[in-house]
Amino acid sequence: ARLPETAQALYAELLDQSVIARAERESARLAPPGSFVSKSVKGNTYWYLQRSEGGQQIQIYLGPESPGLVRWMDDVRETREKTAPDRERRRDLVRMLRTTGFTIPDAATGRIIQVLAERGLFRSGGVLVGTHAFGCYGNMLGIRLAGRSVRTADVDILHDARIALALDPSA
Prior knowledge:
alpha+beta
C-alpha cells in the first residue's frame, strides 16, 4: 500500500533535518548528550561529561579546567540551546510519521541505534541490516511493506573494518 504523499513529504523533511543535525554536530564538535560536572581534587577542578547509559550514570573525563575547555563547554551549551527547536521538530516529525503507517523503531531500539551511532560504529564501517534496515526501505520508497508481524526486536549490524580505511579515525 502506498503511504500518503503528505507523509512522504514529512519523511523527506525528517531526512533533511537529520542531515542538517549531523552537520551541526560535526561543525560544533558537540559532545554526546549529557551534562557537564566538575570535581575538585587538591584545589584543582576537573571536568566530566555525565550521562545515563543502560540505567547507569557514567562519566567521561574531559580534562582539567582550562580557558579552552570552559570555552568549548560554553559553545556546546549554546549550540544545544540554539538547536533545541530543531530536535523538537524532528521528534514531532517522527510522532506524525508513526501515525501515518511509516515503519518507526520503538524507543528502546531507537536509543540503541543512537548510542551505536554516537560511538562511531556506522562511521567506522558498521551497517544496519536485518528487519530494521528493511523497514527503512519501505519508508524511502513511500510504501507500507507487508509482514510487520515478522519484525524482530534485535538490532542486526554488519561490520567490515575494511570499509573504515577511508575514514579518519580521529574525526
